Amino acid sequence: MVLNRHGAMQLLGLDADCYEELLNVMRGEVGEWLIFFQQADRCETEMLRARAHRLKSDAANIGAERVRHAARVLEQAIRDKQQADEVEHFRRLLVQELRELERAIA
Fold first, then answer.
1. What stretches in the chain show pLDDT beneath 70?
2. What per-residue confidence (pLDDT) applies to 92?
3. From CA 87, how far away is CA 46, in angstroms rounded?
4. Which residue among 35, 78, 94, 102 is the one 20 to 30 A from 45 at the CA level?
5. Under a CB-based contact definition with an 8 Å cutoff, are residues 61 and 9 in contact?
6. C-alpha to C-alpha distance for 40 and 23, rounded to whole angstroms
């Protein structure tokens, strides 16, 4: 499941209308997140980690669990100072999940 609307509404205590407002905000941001993480191989590692951390929270708020998980794994790989190819693997997985989310909320 790309988007758990019901779970997010329960977690945040939102009704359907408020959730849709939140989702509308995220619709505008998903494209920006996708561009950033597609081009993130040019970024400083700490910036990449910080953006993954922020995305993790944003994704959780709308119930985008696969994106949240991918962002968490990327953040942890950077924090654990894993090899560059491992970090790159997790970055690519996050980009893939963001593409799926973008399609799901379009």
1. 42-43
2. 96
3. 12
4. 102
5. no
6. 24
